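User: Batch of two.

Assistant: Item 1 of 2:
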Amino acid sequence: MKEHGGIVATLDTELKMRIKKNGGSVLSVSSDKIVLEPGKL
């Protein structure tokens, strides 16, 4: 993740934050919407 980035789908909030800090993006699914959360927040 640190070298190449990437996209990960997970429900684990702590893991989501770690992925974002390392430059990856996270897919969030809520109701009928899929949201791409950007990395490096």
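Item 2 of 2:
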Amino acid sequence: MSLFFGGVGLCLGWAVAQPTERSKAFLQAQGYTRRQVWDSALLAWRALLNRETDSGAVALIYQQLGYIALHKGDSTEALRLWETALRFWPVYRTALQNYQWLRQRLRQPPPPTPPHLHRYTPPPPLSEKAPPTPGELPLPRKLPEPQWLPAARLQR
């Protein structure tokens, strides 16, 4: 009997130790970042940002995107991304230290950028009630012609 429970415990331990798809995606994105393959890292972090719902994980993603932006030479975007990370998780020490460090190094604060010009994060999806912006008007749809059914068919 103990052999049976030992085997079940071993199987459960193996199942728990297997990385999930989410953790594999995070490890892949982190690997690209460590190897400084910026384009692949940027795509991997953006993909994670689109499907992540946990605020701590979203803060981590924004922190990493800020790191990438800084290494690509865009300090204004890095500051904005680190500030966004702190909005999702205000006690995130790494994002706070990076934000403060870069803010002190800059001689003057950067001008605010309009949201549609942010280069490192995808734009948020528009809701159905949002007014379209210039250049994003929906294509006109041709409505189908109504089909009239014979009166004999309707009486059944």
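Residues 20-108 form a domain with the Serine Threonine Protein Phosphatase 5, Tetratricopeptide repeat fold (CATH 1.25.40.10).
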